[in-house]
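@channel sequence for tomorrow's demo:
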Amino acid sequence: MALDRGGSCNGIVYRLPAEDHFGQLGQLMRREVDANPPTNVPCWIKVKTKEGPLCALAFVAAPDGRAYAGRVPLEQVADALARAAGHWGSSAQYLFRTVGKLEESGIRDRNLWHIQDLVARQIIASTGGADPA
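structure tokens (generated this afternoon):
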């Protein structure tokens, strides 16, 4: 999952701790930039906040990245997310945590909720209909 060009979304802006910006940015880059060429490319974007406009560092999907999926059907996206895992855990868990964090902040993204439902159905189907928990 990544931001792609040509749209907008509601999200959460995080502020780095006041100390060790260089170290914090290094950790962020190691977590987000995962391949060569990268699929997630750091990019400064303008964001609107309650306190006013800001410039924020975001990671945007690069069409030439190895993991870029483009505009594939949601069922195909869900199939990949239900089965994929990376250095930091499963994609299904990442999706679940992302949706949960957005919900905590009062943001309900219908597309992410729909994908989450499709992923859950894929996982249930792959376990023979058993509850995955």
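heads up for whoever presents: The beta strands are 40-49, 52-61, 85-86, 89-90.
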